[in-house]
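Help: read this over?
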Amino acid sequence: MTRFVNDARRCLIEGFLRQHGWKDAVREKLVDDASARQYWRLSRGYDTALLMDFAPDAVSIDPHGLSDTPERPASIVPVLKTTALFSGLGWRVPGIFASDTQQGLAIIEDFGDLTFTKALKMGEIAPASLYIRATDALVDLHRHVDRAVLDDSPANRNLAELVRYQPGNLRRQLASFCRDYLPLVLADAPAREKATQDFNCLLDDILPQCWQAGETVIHRDYHVDNLMLVDTDDGGVDCGIIDFQDAAIAPRPYDLVSLLRDVRHDVGAGLERAMLDRYLAAFPAMDEAAFYRAYIATGMVRNFRILGRFGWLARESAKTRYLEFIPRCWELILRGADENLPQLASWVERHIPARARFEPAFRSIVDPAIPPANPEHGPDHEQ
């Protein structure tokens, strides 16, 4: 199929496609996502589907902070379970046409190529209309989850099997920030040690606040790259959702933060506030102040984790292109912090030089005086 697939794997795939009627389909390799999964578009006449190849011997990284060793066996089982879960909860997700869990192969529904990201770049659809669709999809999901009772339905069995985040999960996810990012901006070891100590104290205070608005099922990587415009049978357009296999039960604002405080896509404070108001209007019993504190705290977690990942990529993989996003990470961390989490704003002001926050080209990323981080603790594959 391609040079990326060895002969043995190619034979397995050929047999799988033959078994399920796609042997003679035209195959087009798609751009890889950030994981070890690979995808091909299968075409036979007017019918299309996607082949997902996630070999059992591939490297997979635990995204949930379950332990200090993030490696885990590769498996398509989470894809199958979360597909059943989200379909049962009312989301438009790709159907599974065939699967082989032992071999890590699946044929899934093809949603096409029109992501919200592409739609935004085309400029033919108002950004607000896309973000309304995305926000309303979260409202619908959270309403379903709020009403859910853990009975014996397949969707609810999958719900009960999800990882349930605790502050410890988030703390382990943030270890990379101190290990991989702080050395880039704090060359002085005592200063770095003090910043780390104070950061751990900060987390003791802030992480529990992520749950002030309760918890729900999260996609975990909910942003415009993973949302698609999908035609419906009646000629309309639906919000198709992909790449949800790392779903969990976590703080309620988690996916809204991913959507509205995405480091790569500047939503703007006005549209962000409008979408938050739209979400809160759907849940009138919710304490708005508590929700917003949880939203700011969860945003802190997401962006500190991203900074750690960017630092690791720069130091261990020489991938410095992500450093242009660093100023935006800090802007998002600090947006609303003074009013809602002043201790966070104080920690940043005390320990992170302003130039490191707001200048893309801060001190050399590859300073030989700083020892390299341990490559076995690399960043997770999200985003």
